[in-house]
């Protein structure tokens, strides 16, 4: 993978990949903490059992809003100030915010600090993927970004281990401490040479609103976002609220949200590395993503049918949809490859966070469908049909980007 890199740059490349991967590991750990700790933390704050779902949705929406706004902020800064400054700036903010999450005394404080956490968490993945994509050889950069994502999603599995053994406040302290420890690795890292060249030119960088300057530009950006929507539908709806789904299926014991998240993310790590390798073999992003989407739809079907059979079958379905959801790295990489150096970090950072932020309208639609009598499963299935329809539309209209030379600029 690194054979074509000059020996003097090989150590720097490896170090950047390691830092980006570990940063994403802590990012995912912190991002999923509320899903893992929703019930014990809200119960400790005095929320009655019949309000756990409603208050959980409210706080998730605040976190999603932070991700949405943070994606724009960090994305623009990534193209204006550099990828490294965003990588470590976002790590510092989400680490500090998660330590404060462990000190909350009310639901309102909790909601605000999950918003602040989301704001910080929004920058790490896009900056890391952009850096790795720009320093790796053209033909193998998908392997580098897949490695970043695969190591990152294991943070979810580690999070369940910590959340299951540590008191909920301590779990937040651990996440924040891990992030702050990563800041020590900043020494010796160099900025992307592609960014340095772009910074020396006269073309304006980080113009977020240029993505909406014409119908053509807007549709191109919208289609990229749509490709990632099924990934957040799976974790944000089916996995996060699996206790409620399991009981509605008639299971005698409610599935553990924490364990479901863990097995899902183990599957996701396998899927992310597999999708990168398969993409290298077929020399295509679009074909591989299309195949994984097909497996996702199969996984959703199994979740609502086979998942009713037993608790073990339910968890097996969670693993399956995790593996099928393993095109997150390809999705972010594909988004980065669609744009020039002066807009690459903006797109690579905002697009995944637009997907994460889409949890707000998803949960709104989910609640609306339930209010109109569709029930828990019917509402989730209808939402899934809509999500996959727009995702396939987005993939169909997005250009293949495998092997594309990234040394170019976007000009009006």
CATH class: Mainly Alpha
Order of helices and strands: HHHHHHHHHHHHHHHHH
Q: State the helix count.
A: 17
Alpha-carbon distance between the termini?
Answer: 35 Å
Please give the share of residues in helix. over 70%
Task: Give the domain tally.
Answer: 1
At CATH's second level, what is the architecture?
Up-down Bundle
Count of DSSP strands = 0
Give the low-confidence spans: 1-8
The CATH homologous superfamily is named MFS general substrate transporter like domains
- Give the biggest sheet: none
Coarse morphology: globular
Mean pLDDT: 88
| Percentage of β-strand residues | under 5%
| CA radius of gyration | 20 Å
User: Which structural category fits the helices and strands?
Assistant: mainly alpha
CATH domain topology: Growth Hormone, Chain: A
What does this molecule look like?
Helix content is 76%, strand content 0%. It is mainly alpha-helical and 412 residues long. It has a single domain, classed as Up-down Bundle (Growth Hormone, Chain: A), CATH 1.20.1250. α2 packs antiparallel against α3 and α16 (359-371) packs antiparallel against α17 (375-396). It is globular, with a radius of gyration of 20 Å. The protein starts with 6 loop residues before the first helix and ends in a 16-residue tail after the last helix. The model is unreliable at 1-8 (pLDDT under 50).
């Amino acid at each position: 993978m690194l054979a074509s890199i000059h020996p003097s740059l090989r150590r720097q490349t490896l170090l950047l990949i390691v830092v980006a991967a570990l940063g994403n590991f802590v990012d995912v750990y912190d991002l999923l903490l509320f899903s893992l700790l929703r019930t014990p933390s809200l119960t400790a704050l005095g929320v009655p059992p019949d309000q756990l779902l409603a208050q959980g949705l409210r706080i998730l929406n605040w976190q999603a809003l932070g991700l949405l706004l943070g994606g724009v902020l960090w994305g623009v800064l990534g193209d204006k100030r550099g990828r490294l400054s965003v990588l470590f700036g976002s790590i510092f903010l989400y680490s500090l915010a998660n330590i404060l999450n462990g000190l909350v005394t009310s639901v309102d404080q909790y909601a605000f600090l999950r918003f602040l956490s989301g704001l910080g968490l929004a920058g790490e993945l896009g900056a890391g993927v952009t850096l790795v994509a720009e320093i790796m050889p053209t033909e193998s950069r998908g392997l580098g970004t897949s490695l970043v994502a695969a190591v990152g999603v294991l943070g979810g599995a580690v999070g369940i281990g910590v959340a299951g053994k540590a008191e909920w406040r301590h779990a937040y302290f651990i996440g924040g401490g891990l992030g702050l420890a990563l800041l020590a690795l900043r020494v010796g890292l160099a900025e992307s040479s592609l960014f340095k060249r772009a910074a020396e030119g006269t073309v304006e960088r980080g113009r977020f609103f240029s993505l909406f300057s014409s119908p053509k530009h807007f549709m191109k950006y919208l289609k990229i976002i749509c490709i990632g929507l099924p990934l957040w539908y799976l974790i944000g709806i089916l996995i996060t609220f699996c206790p409620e789904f399991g009981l509605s299926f008639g299971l005698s014991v409610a599935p553990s949200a924490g364990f479901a998240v863990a097995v899902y993310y183990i599957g996701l790590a396998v899927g992310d590395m597999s999708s990168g390798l398969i993409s290298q073999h077929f020399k295509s992003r679009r074909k591989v993503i299309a195949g994984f989407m097909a497996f996702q739809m199969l996984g959703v079907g199994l979740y609502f049918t086979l998942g009713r059979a037993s608790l073990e079958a339910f968890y097996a379905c969670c693993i399956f949809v995790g593996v099928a959801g393993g095109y997150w790295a390809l999705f972010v990489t594909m988004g980065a490859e669609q744009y020039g150096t002066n807009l690459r970090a903006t797109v690579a950072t905002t697009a995944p966070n637009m997907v994460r932020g889409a949890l707000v309208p998803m949960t709104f639609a989910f609640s609306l469908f339930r209010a109109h009598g569709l029930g828990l499963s019917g509402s989730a299935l209808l939402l899934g049909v809509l999500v996959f329809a727009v995702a396939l539309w987005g993939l169909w209209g997005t250009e293949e980007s495998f092997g594309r030379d990234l040394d170019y600029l976007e000009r009006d």
